[in-house]
Structure formats: C-alpha cells, structure tokens
Amino acid sequence: MADPLAQFEVKTIIPLQVGGIDISFTNSSLFMSLAVLGASGFLVLGARYGAAVPGRWQSMTELTYEFISNLIKETIGPEGRRYFPIIFTLFMFILFGNMLGMVPYGYTFTSQIIVTFAMAAVVFVGVTILAFAKHGLHFFSFFTPPGSPVWMWPLLIPIEIISYLSRPLSLSVRLFANMMAGHTLLKVIAGFVFSLSVFGVVPLAFVVAVTALEILIAFLQAYVFTLLTCLYIKDALELH
C-alpha cells in the first residue's frame, strides 16, 4: 500500500534560487495559481452576460455572491460591506483550493499548515490593525470582559490575551487538520480496494461515501474560515 502521507509532499516543478533563498515553483504553487485562475474564471464567466433572466452559470455566481454578502450582513452588520472584497476572496480561494484537492492527482495546498497559517496570520494582523485604527489604545479594553470585577483582572486578562493570540493558530489548524485527515483516510481506504482485488467492493463503497463527505467538508471548512474571519472583524469593530 502506498504511503497515504506521500500525497502531501511539496515537489519542485521549476527550481529557482534568488540570493541563496529557494523560491522554486512547486506543486503547491501550481495549485494555488489554479485556484486563483479557477475562481476568477468562474466569476468572470458568470458575470459576462449579466442577463435579466440568469442562466445556470450566472445563477451560481450570484448565489455565491449573495451567500457571502448575507453572511457579512448577519455577522458584522451594514458596516461590514467595506470588507466584502477580502472576505469574498478568502472564501473563493479556500473553496477552490479544497475542491481542486478532490480532483484525481490533484494537490490540496490547504492541507499544508504553512499555507493555512499564512492566511490566518494575514487575517489576525489585519483585524488587529483595524481594531487599533478604530479604537486606539481603547482596544486593550477588549481583554477586560465587561462586568468583571477589577480584582479578577489579573486572572482574566492573561487568559483573554492567550485566547486572542491563539486565534491564528486555531484558525489555521482547523482547516489544515480537517483537509489532511480526510485525504489521508481516503488514501488508506482506496489502498484496500486495490489490495483486496475482487473483494474490494465494500472499501470501494466507503471511498464513494467518504469522497462525498469530503466534498461537503471542503465547502464547510471554507465557510467556517470565512465565518470566523467575519466574527473577528466584528470584534475589532465593536470590541465587546
């Protein structure tokens, strides 16, 4: 049986060194580029005609737009409209990255912790800058829960700070772990299909079921990452 973790290896396609730094174009880079192109193509083709009575493609594009628009309205409120571009971009990039990993011989770059942590770090830093820009030093009141007695602050403030600083870690690990675990399980079960030959019907049925589940999880993880981003922006705008 092939190593189920081999599918996550980063392989160099075009080796490139600049100043002693390896910036080679890898399979991860390739599929990130394909995710950008795929998401862009999906939106451009869907909005190309702008018909009064939308066809299937345009309907899918509009539904995607309205889905994120309603998510922002429900979590952040009217003020969240100005953050729609970054939130929508994150959702589409993660969604297409997850779905490309479901294509045979594809590569799931969202199963790499460095990729998910980079996205989570951008969200974390951006939200923190937004909070300081809006509230100034009053931002530090975020670490004192409203209504808590002053004598409990020495205990509560460190807990709140640790909780806040752990946001990029929890946000990145959630996406990375779910995608990696699902694809590893698929690979293991698929290995039994070939090793059991004619008796591999049952594992094959499991592969089909897990594949369907993974497609659902691919969407849900993009949604969860986007939802948490919206909630973090709401916290930055309102503090409590």
Description of the structure:
This protein has seven helices and four strands. The chain is mainly alpha-helical and 240 residues long. It has one domain. A hairpin with a 2-residue loop joins strand 2 (17-18) and strand 3 (21-22). Helix 1 crosses helix 3 (84-100) and helix 4 (113-135) runs antiparallel to helix 6 (167-195). The termini are far apart. The relative contact order is 0.13.
Order of helices and strands: EEEEHHHHHHH
Largest sheet strand order: 1-4
Radius of gyration: 21 Å
User: How much helicity do the residues have?
Assistant: 55-70%
Distance between the termini: 52 Å
Biggest beta sheet attributes: 2 strands, antiparallel
Q: So what's the overall shape?
A: globular
Strand residues, percent: under 5%
Low-confidence stretches: none
The number of E-state strands comes to 4
Which structural class should the secondary elements be placed in? mainly alpha
In DSSP terms, counting alpha (H) and pi (I) runs of 4 or more, how many helices? 7
Write the SSE topology.
Blueprint: E1 12-14, E2 17-18, E3 21-22, E4 25-26, H1 27-46, H2 56-75, H3 84-100, H4 113-135, H5 153-165, H6 167-195, H7 201-238
Helix pairs in contact: 1-2, 1-3, 2-3, 3-7, 4-6, 4-7, 6-7
List keywords for this structure.
240 residues, mainly alpha, two-stranded antiparallel ribbon, 7 helices
